[in-house]
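Risk register update: the risk of archive-format incompatibility is retired. Evidence:
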Amino acid sequence: MIPKSPISSPSGGNLIPVGPQIPKRWWTVLAFLPVVAIGTLFLALGPLWNSYQLREMMARLDQSDPMQSEQGLIGMVALGQRAIEPMEIWLQDPSPERRRKAALALSQIPGERAYLLLLNALQDRDRQVREYAQNGILRRLSMGLMAEIPKWEDGALKDSAAIIRDGTPELETTYREGLSLMKEEDWEAALDHWDAAIRQGPDWAAAYYQRAKTLYSLGRFDACLRDCQEVLRYHPDHLGVLIYMGNAYYHAGYWDLAYDTFMRTLDLIQRLKMTPPARS
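Archived output:
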């Protein structure tokens, strides 16, 4: 005799026979199986895809066509840490063209390993490889030092007399107005403001400093450097000015001067960190 289910048929007549029932928890497991399968597939294909990307970008970078090579460079930089090992191999390649491209790629990839490879590349026999390596090192220095400016200025601005000449209310108002224009990134208006402030106070070092920052933001690096030199006449250990000066040298292409300025700045930062804080 076939066992009957206690469930009635839709017609209300004879009971409907049924087979073994699958517990609900197993349906939940079965529903997740496709998700697990797809995830496993992606995990398996991930390294293959990464390897394909790496080979593709290296092949483009190795092209003599400038556009293809540039696309390869962009791709290698986007790959980040995965690009370091093949670029390290290229740095040992007899072809100077490959070594140049490797140094150029590493100059734009962050991380300590890329930095150490660039330091080694400074000894390369090819001048352009050395320049790309130097550029990458300076780029890292510039980014690191720029991060020091907000911390330094925050402390310096707490003492208005150290920044604003004579600390008069009129000069303080002028100074705050200029800072407000810079905060709004209205660089041309800020430049006009600092020009007028310097005409009123030709020995106002803080105004020269802010104008140097404004000129830097406008990409007028030679003019920025002149204002930096003016500030150093009054404050030879002005940390902010040294940082902007090093970066202006860097962007203007004066790499040796940038390096010297960055080294001077790093020495100053160490001295400032070793100096005990003043007691209030």
